[in-house]
Amino acid sequence: MPQLPSARGRYDAAVIGAGPNGLAAAITLAQAGRSVIVYEAAETIGGGTRTKELTLPGFAHDVCSAIHPLGIGSPFFKRLPLEKYGLEWIQPDAPLAHPLPDGSAVLLERSVATTSAGLDAPDQRAYVALMEPLADGWDTLASAFLGPLRPSLIPLGIRHPLLLTTFGLHAIRSACGMARSVFRGERARAIFGGMSAHSMLPLERSPSAAFGLVLGTLAHAIGWPLARGGSQSLTDALAAYLRSLGGEIVTETPVTALADLPPTRAILCDVTPRQLLSLADDRLPSGYRKRLARYRYGPGVFKLDLALDGPIPWRAADCLRAGTVHVGGTLDEIAAAERAVWQGKAPERPFVLLAQQSLFDPSRAPAGKQTVWAYCHVPNGYTGDMTEAIEAQIERFAPGFRQRILARHAMSAADMERYDANYIGGDINGGVQDLMQLFTRPTIQLNPYVMPAPGLYLCSSSTPPGGGVHGMCGYFAAQAALRGALT
Predict the structure, then answer these.
(1) DSSP code per residue over 179-241
(2) How many domains is the chain built from?
């Protein structure tokens, strides 16, 4: 089979996939003076950070990721001059709203104190005591946990023992266990449960609490921003910066076998283990291939984009202050929905993660109109239609919502995988992120980015620190390559 094209000739490294991690890997290599080319199978770059008119002309919808606390909070991204290349972050008035069945809503505010004031009285001091030190120490927490386990963490732990120990002891717990032991009232338990459900784990399983802690900390320390014009703006800024460093990007060029790539000193793969097994042919030892074959994927997502003839008519008007709304009710309700998914069932009342970006970014929709971005968790590979269930949940907390719908665009878990091959069965996290696959993804080894084949590296969310738009998987994989094949 003929080799894939290159734009200039011979390169030090090739990167497969132009999502955030692939671009981060390429940028890291280019910053170090290495020549690099990125191959993207789709017509457009971005992976999980693309924006399209999915419903009606003039309505810009984020196809996958939409709200970016880790984008702005990433130790790697924040070092890049992305604003120079068109990226502009918009901070909603409040990061998150969580409506409750009684018609009220809990708001996650930028201020720890303001957030605590909206909780039940017995939980106010407990919330401040928990979250204030974490928010103040975000940079330290990011250095410690947004990456692999590594020797450099030892001196960090010596310098910040209380912060890291406090976080670790809470993070290793289940969301339900932690919420019920730390908080007495339903308001604090519900908002913490909603944030923890981003783990795509049953809330009775550890370390689901870690996800709630990280997202809550990010809200207070940095915010939950959105990119003006759409998530594609982040992708375009990364690509423009890469090109300014001399990097090349080739689109509409699927890589089906590593042997087809032009000769390079290193290959970095922004793919999951299942795809890697297909790409690598016989380059990988049989034992490593067997371990990759045992890699576990988690639940999928059902995605719904809506064009509206006005804002969502929330019963709790404060929800209009938030860029993100968690629609699921109480902690018990959210836990039941996530438990059903792991039992292979589509929940009747799903936990819905919703963003209303156009309230804060008028470029997303025509004047007076609004966009809605929403998804829920479903069993891996689920082909059913959750449109009615998602809309019923929103209508429950916003009567009259359905009357404002102008158009819909739905994607099942199977559709998500067809859209992005990294979303195996609709799993947007690149694999289960439980204790067995949090820092030991894709396999147990000292350096998870290095594969047992000369010059071959894995840079996808199937490596630490896992899912999310942060680029850290790509950064650490590129660092491994610079210490290895590209020294």
Answers:
(1) HHHH--SHHHHHHHHHHHGGG-S-TTSTTHHHHHHHHHHHHHHT---EETT-THHHHHHHHHH
(2) 2
